Fold Response regulator transcription factor.
Amino acid sequence: MKKVRTFLAEDHTIVRKAIRALLEKEAGIEVVGEASTGFETVSQCEVLKPDVVLMDISMPDMNGVEATRQIIKTSPKTKVVVLSVHKEQQYIFPALRAGARGYVLKDDIVEDLLVAINVVAKGNSFFSPTIQDHLLRDYIRTGEDAQQVLKPDPLTPREKQILQLIAEEHTNKRIAAKLNISLKTVQAHRTNIMEKLDIHSAAGLTKYAIATGLIEKPGSN
């Protein structure tokens, strides 16, 4: 039987090692690589082209949603399963829009992860049962339809990437170097972000990034 070639993206070393140990006990799964940042994940997956990527939604430099979007773009056959402690809509729906085929709560990893890997590897989708129940309750409570829940994001993928780096307290110069773009381009993006969001301070941008799931609230892990 062909093994499911799996890549693990998780920024917490202890969690990453624990998940890897779980996967390596499974005869039908081969762990082909691992990374602790979004940039590393995208770079390695472009070369390795794994069958499945297990993607922590909150990683430094590039969050799991943007990393998912870039991986799907460069390796369309790769399936992404998001791993998260969050079950709120502002985390789930951006991941789905980016192309994720599964969403597993970290509390449910032992019960659900192996099933999720095999399900998405076959081209299907998988969500932790807790997620399904939570979304149904949200839908009933708010009465929102799918179009309202999936309303367009005001920022482009590049703007969200830069917003995350701003919220992580990178300077414009460091952002330019990290993304291999000019300082003037970073400044232009920063201005556009502030105008689109009508937020005109770094502190305000950080609050927005936390509220929309781009970065974790300090101490939330």
Summary: The chain has a mean pLDDT of 87.
